[in-house]
Amino acid sequence: MNPLPGPGLYVHFPWCVKKCPYCDFNSHPLAGALDENGYLEALAEDFAANAGDLRFATAFLGGGTPSLFSAAAIRALLDRVRPRLAEGAEITMEANPGAVERGAFGAYWQAGVNRLSIGAQSFSGAMLARLGRIHGPEEIERAVAEARAGGFENINLDVMYGLPEQSPDEALADLERAVALDPDHLSWYQLTIEPKTAFAVRPPPIPDEGAIAAMEQAGRALLANAGYRRYEVSAYARPGAECRHNLGYWTFGDYLGIGAGAAGKRRRDGETVRTSKPRQPRLYLDSPGTAMEAPVPSRELPGEFMMNALRLVEGVERQAFTDRCGLPWSSVAPIWVRTTAYGLTEPNRIRATAFGLRHLDRLVQFFL
To answer: Other CB atoms closer than 10 Å to residue 148's CB: what's the count?
Structure first.
């Protein structure tokens, strides 16, 4: 993972067809017609005002549901930012199987998107209904087939486990269906009940710790046998198909966030600055070029860095800590000695042991 990934561009699309009960992202059910042109103009103003001299190694169109926007709108956006994208930049777009017209994937490919992330979540109709999804299992399979036919050679599937009333066998069956579609990348992660979501208000019956452990053990073995390497806590890839944009986050790299509710981070003039945008689309559209800035105190940087870097199975070199935070290794060395003594980290590399990965929340607490 050297050299460290370059800066990334994140573009947020805040609308979706329906708010899922587990979702805590900045998403708003679409009411009425979608003003594509108005939002594109706001994004262009935002980008022009805040991109500075950055040249972006990756771009990620997330949401919400970016695939609610037409391929023509996505092309117009990418045409605006393309002069600032590095040659061969990874350009990812999230898509939900229930929010794309049949045959549209080829148009997104032609618009310039070269990596697709499809929100499958489950291949069980009953589970999808419990999650409030607007698609069925057959639409996932059709979406992958149409994406391949449309030109996409780099496809991620999002799949969750630990779903309401899900058994280990059902979780494994979901993963088997996903692997059968031969995606290049799988994001396989546990359902968590986040505050201020519908599931937090009315918690569903989720599997116990023993069932979750059984799902994880069997699922990781299945993925390994299918040729997927686990390179981050919940990310698995074929060789060379790791998500470069997310690697930027996990190595505490710089990124510009544009769009309603988008966040960003940049190392500037010796300090790390986080930026944010109004979450409500109406407020964002009133002043899209304005970014709220908040310097990150030096004492908080070790915790923020480790919260990300320790998620990587192979970790990073120690020098990455100084490069990303502007702090000497000696500022965290005493803590590192303790975590290594506890068997949580390796002595000569910023890397969690297998035991440390299983207790990652506890490990990160040492640095917060």
So the answer is: 16
